Amino acid sequence: MIRRLLALVTLVAGLAGAAVALGATPASAANNLSVSRKDAIAKVQEVRASIDRTLALIKEGKSDQAFEEAKDGYLNHFELVEIPLRVADNSLTIHAESLFAEIRTMIRDGDSESAIRDKIIELRGVMDDVERKLTSTGLTAPALVLGQSFLIIFREGFEVILLLSVLLGYLEAAKSRQYMRPILAGVGIAAVATVLTVMLFRTIFAALPIGQEMLEAITALVAVAMLFYVSFWLIARLEHKRWLEFVKARMWSAVSVGSAASLMIVGFTAVYREGFETALFYQALISFGTGLGMYILGGLFLGIAALAVVAWMMFRLGRRLPIKTFMNIAVVLVMATSVAFLGNAVHALQAADRVPFTPLAGWPRPPIFLSEATGYWSTVQTVTAQLVLTAVYVIGGIYAFVVKPRLARRAAVPRPVAPTAAPA
Description:
- The chain is built from 15 helices and no strands.
- It has 424 residues and is mostly helical.
- The protein folds into 2 domains: 133 residues, no CATH class; 272 residues, no CATH class.
- Helix 1 packs across helix 4, helix 9 crosses helix 11 and helix 13 packs across helix 14.
């Protein structure tokens, strides 16, 4: 309670000081009122730089300098951001002011480095919210996020349709239609389990005793690992179709036993694998799609509608689809999505003060919504991570699509048999 009162007093004093520092004359007030959103967004970048300097000074044990930096960041930078921000979201303005005041109070009172660090990390997150409030979503970022959402559900759903076509086609060919019901029951259970997994992710993440930034980073890194696996698994599928062969083998074993439970397990495992991946990928997409939820939802609905058309064409009309062409396109898009997730993961680790933050001087910094959609943040660490992953994909793609086929063609060419020597 005492700390809250001190923070409130500091906040009031800061506002009074700001009026003096900025010169509360009619002329200067008119200039302040003319601050545009574009100017305020530029000031947000200066506020972020000041926050980073404050944390660096705290780590160096320079409390007095850190206090002056924190005060300067608020009075000379954030005060100008407040002018358009109060119109956009007054409650967010008050929350940011309170955090600035609390940080100054904690520094002045000599609180521990870890406590001040946690509060600064929270303020970094609030600065992201401030920029989102002041920034238009534009067209590119919503289109990218909608496309990513569509890709996730459509690719995973397309895989499910292919698996079901194999399972049901196998039973049809074996004249074992009586086994379709337990298979479909397993598929239904897998669908329900996928929905529960999405809800469980949200519940578990809300209960974990770690910061939001660390949760976002961990989720994105796991999603990147799975997308990396999926990318090269898809490349392998283009030629070998090992997963479908595995499902056929499982199906043959279950039919041989004739157990309904075994058939249900086959249907469940064939679908839930894709469902779990879908839940994880959407969790990562939502984490870095703040303010773009409507477009994520739109991509989801469009993907489901497209899947319904595909399923109707395959099961009702019996039409063959260009699966290999789709897989080729899916590989590239999945790789691009994983590169975006990786950039956002590194950025989240930077926000949580787990990874160094080295800005790339002179590099353009796109609007926050576009940065979230692409994972591009103009720092050495994020750009390096994305370039390394892209290089791995390029090398892997060259091997899979160029080198490996050439080796296979060479191996398939029959070698001439050397003539045997005639008997003397």
